[in-house]
Amino acid sequence: MMAGQCRLRQSALPASLAAWLLACTPGHAHGLAGGSPLDELAAGFGAPLDVAAALLLIAAAGICAALWDSNRFTRLGWGLLAGTAAGPLMAWLLARSGIAIPHWPALALGIALALMTALARRWSAALMRSLLAAAGCLAVIATLLDHAVGDLTFFTGAGLVLGVVFFTAASAAAFSLPQMLLPPGIARLGLRIVASWTGAIAILLLAFTLRGAVG
Amino acid sequence: MKKTLSLSILLVICAATPGLAHTGLGPEGGFTSGFFHPIFGWDHVIAMIAVGLWGAFLGAPAIWVLPVVFPLVMAFGGALGVMGVPVPAVETGIALSGVILGLAVAFAVRAPLWIAGILVAVFAVFHGHAHGTELPEAANPFAYAAGFVIATGLLHLAGIGFGLLVRAPGGQWLVRAGGGVIACIGAAFLFGYA
Known about the structure:
The complex is a heterodimer of chains A (215) and B (194).
Chain A: H1 2-23, H2 37-46, H3 52-68, H4 77-96, H5 104-119, H6 125-147, H7 154-181, H8 184-211
Chain B: H1 2-15, H2 31-39, H3 42-58, H4 62-82, H5 90-106, H6 113-134, H7 141-163, H8 171-190
Helix pairs in contact in B: 2-7, 3-4, 3-5, 3-7, 3-8, 4-6, 4-7, 5-6, 5-8
């Protein structure tokens, strides 16, 4: 009896924590407006994860960079950073001139990157840098379209740029890991298959978008 | 102990999310719906497994080319379906895919890569179109598409896994028999017995 109570007491705290973790609500951190500068930075940083088109583009760019060269994908970083940094300005200029940019350019580039990865050819560094620059820029624009460019402050913009660069680099790093841990042939085969899945999801989402069901 | 138990209950009550079971969005909503869409149709399942089987049977590079081609072209077919572009004889094409791909495995057909790729791509359009047409309005298109594509890919991987038995002694006959079974099921769909 006593032993049973003791076991119950010992398991009650982890159970409480597990119950709390399971029951807690998802964070709604992506209202970009308002709050302290730190809040705005954090909101901008997490915002790309909330937009399917941006997320797919980031994933496709990450796989493409990882498969391009798992040891040297950091060489592409400057292109990604430059393109991403231009994103908020581009979005602001487009919104100011009244040009509505839908999600499909981000999805189309995601499909192109997925196809390039699936084909697995050795692309030049200059082409890869340009594509990653475009990916960063379009990921920012797609994200801002879902959160209204009017919400954009310096800190949300900075957070957004950091977020897109960070998640793209993280995606590339994550997809480089299998190439270090598994036999190279199997890892590259797996990455091509995953890239084709990303491209297929983007194609379907593009169809829904063009049909007007999304975005 | 009572205190800890009360604390647990209080934490759960405070942190619990609202129930999302009755959103009014219907069953054709998100990831689960997309995931089970290919899995619950035997005509789709056999074809997708056959693609993996044939890829494994043909060896590199077909082992990765076919499972890469199929989801991409299937998504293209799905896009046609979602956008309402008609494709003729979809059901026949789906049933025929099981028959042809099953026979290719059963008779150990070593087709050139480009022929295998084109064949798989043509059949993928039918499969994708059928799914796309059946789901004109997805409540969460991203989750639906992700579930749909991942399930398809996993079926290919299941086929590849089974197909790798060709490397084992006697495994080739087992895999070829599997192809024969797939062809028979496909024929049952083709001639209206299933």
